[in-house]
Amino acid sequence: MRKLLLIDDDERLAEPLQQYFAKFDMLLDNETDPLKAIEHLKRQSYDLIVLDVMLPGIDGFETCRRIRQFSDVPIVMLTARGDVMDRVIGLELGADDYLPKPFEPRELVVRIQNIFKRARTVSAENVYQLGELQLDIARKQLTRDDAEVAVTATEFGLLSLLVQNQDRVLSRDEIMQALRGIDADIYSRAIDVLVSRLRQKLQRPELIRTVRGQGYQLVNR
């Protein structure tokens, strides 16, 4: 059973979601205080975090930033405002997906399931050497000189997609279709943010080439 943590100060939301998630073999815990949630995450592991933007004390963006300092657990952000920039900021801070409030529980479940699918192996035999970097798709692991490089499930899925298609340029639309869950309304900006984030973690910006007007291509030299 998957273990999820909901960080939302609306206590009315937790119980119905807990009952609904149980139908999909997911156990949902709830924490209304973001600071307590961060401390809780340092002691106990979860498979995914559902994080509201509007929180007391510190907001969801700051909560996401602090979580990313010690954990790469997948994060789905909830935003009541539905502002495009809110969603872009969330992606830049390391969120894997977002969903505007109000939302249908079924859509949230589908987005969560898509994140878990992206994290699963595409092939049991694929290990790629990218200079000092090694991508092991079967083990869902990226290492640099045998030390693990911390990436989110979405970043790992993006790198795997580029590596397995390094003979051609992938358009933003193709990447969007492969990494389902990102809002199509801002997919161009969202994909650009993900690529930028991944480049920073790889510490080799030249590895992912931008082809103007077309998309992205992995260049392994």
Mean pLDDT: 86
Low-confidence stretches: none
Number of helices: 8
CATH topology of the largest domain: Rossmann fold
Number of domains: 2
Largest beta sheet: strand ordering: 2-1-3-4-5
User: What is the β-strand count?
Assistant: 11
Q: How much of the residues is beta strand, in percent?
A: 15-25%
Looking at CATH, the homologous superfamily of the largest domain is Response regulator
Characterize the structure shown:
The chain is of the alpha/beta class and 221 residues long. It folds into 2 domains: 2-119, Response regulator (Rossmann fold, 3-Layer(aba) Sandwich); 127-218, Arc Repressor Mutant, subunit A, CATH 1.10.10.10. The protein is built from 8 helices and 11 strands. A 5-stranded parallel beta sheet has the order 2-1-3-4-5, with helices on both faces. Helix 2 (34-43) runs parallel beside helix 3 (60-68) and helix 6 packs across helix 8 (187-202). It is globular and about 55 Å long.
In short:
With 221 residues, this protein is α/β, with parallel strands linked by helices. It has helices spanning 11-22, 34-43, 60-68, 84-93, 105-119, 153-164, 172-178, 187-202, and strands at 2-7, 26-31, 48-52, 75-79, 97-100, 127-130, 133-136, 141-144, 147-148, 208-211, 215-218.
